Amino acid sequence: MKNIVSYVFVLIFFLGCEKKEVEVFDVVIRDANVINVLSGEIKKQTLYIRNDRIKKITSHNYLNFTSEFIIDATGKYVLPGFWDNHVHFRGGDSLIQANKATLQLFLMNGVTTVRDAGGDLTRNVMDWKNQIRQKTLVGPTIFSSGPKVDGQNSRWEGSLVVSHNDEINSVLDSLQKLRVDFVKLYDSSISGVLYLKTIAEASQRGLITSGHIPFTVQLDQTLDAGIGAIEHLYYILKGCSSREDSITEAIIKGDENFWSSMPKLLKTYEPLRAQNVFDKLVQADTYVVPTLRISEVLSQLDVDNHFDDVYLKVMPQELLKTYENRVLGFLESSENIKNDRKEIHDFFEVLIKSLSDAHVKILAGSDTGAYNSYIYPGVSLHEELDAMVQAGISNLEALQTSAYNGANFLKKTQDYGSVEAGKISDLVILGSNPLNDIKSTRDIKYVLKGSDVYNPEIIAMQLGCSDCLGLK
Ligand SMILES: [Zn+2]
Fold first, then answer.
1. Among candidates 293, 273, 286, 269, which has minimal Cα distance to 349?
2. Are residues 164 and 267 located together in one domain of the fold?
3. 138, 171: one domain
4. Residue 75: other Cβ atoms inside 10 A
5. CA nearest 186: which of 134, 129, 143, 145?
């Protein structure tokens, strides 16, 4: 795949004395403000890229080099390409092409890696993953769980079924055969006992796990089983309730369900118990994926109809159609339920700040995918970061929740997560400083995917959506 940047200036650039050996690079980014996403420190540096990796970083002098592309990044900011740590490719055979078409939207928004948290297009996702790696397809690096693990008659097509003890090993065997990057557990029909056993067995095998948590088990039990990450905040909220035991009992008996229990969990949130939960999350090194933006969007469907969203122009129609049921379901629900959803979301903003204050590790994930209304691929990761900052998290920590924490969670820090010599050169070059204004994550001048340089404006123009980008 050839670079599509049309105006990266000079082709060959010589500097320094002739005696030194001339080094050859694919891309050189000169005089950038490089952000250390761990410390927040900014250094003026020049990055030398060859064969999809950062080969060298210099602070004061230039090497004697030639390079196909030289980007003058004076006054601009470089950080690792963004990771969206919760996306879905799904919707069955009729949506394969529509899902594939979203790949460029991630890249256009500087999202160079996605963590696919399960769906029914595993064969295709694995093909795309390989093609992207081999550069025969343009898109973000994909790390995938393959199909979700659930019980019988799961809510989601394509899920692997664990309905007996002896299915745990065969399901995990099949996932390992698929070479998935982690195991994703879902909570629509799996029994609490089998859920916990599956996590324990997966952990025993050294697999990374993440999941929802069936309301028939308690948060503590899930942490003890060894879960790696908890997707969404409902499950944290339940663990922080002084009535977690009795509500769990009522769920097991069928006297309560997920949504009916929510207002009770909110009312019985107990700060002391919550602190214990947070401490335990830290001790267990368990990540939390708040998916704040989707929670906000889905709780406001009666207030915001999204008719003016610019991304409606670039989203495949077939994917937009999948938004309908969820929207109708919400609009037809009672005023009480609508209000509950809003209250729960408001509380999640408080909860995420408490989790952050307690140093629980957070992963930024948008939950973009078919059926998840108005959460558009790529841009929704920026909205998620923005939502975190709105909730009171610092800009630096919000940035850490994307590439840095994402790479740590999936144990990929050898290649990803920070701007360092030796790592893969998946980078974004921003026009302004995201440590000052988190909206600057959308001020993307260039996206580097390895040695390939992309100009988001050109992708947006090709898609007929120049207004899809920018500081909004
Ligand atoms: Zn999801």
1. 293
2. yes
3. yes
4. 11
5. 145
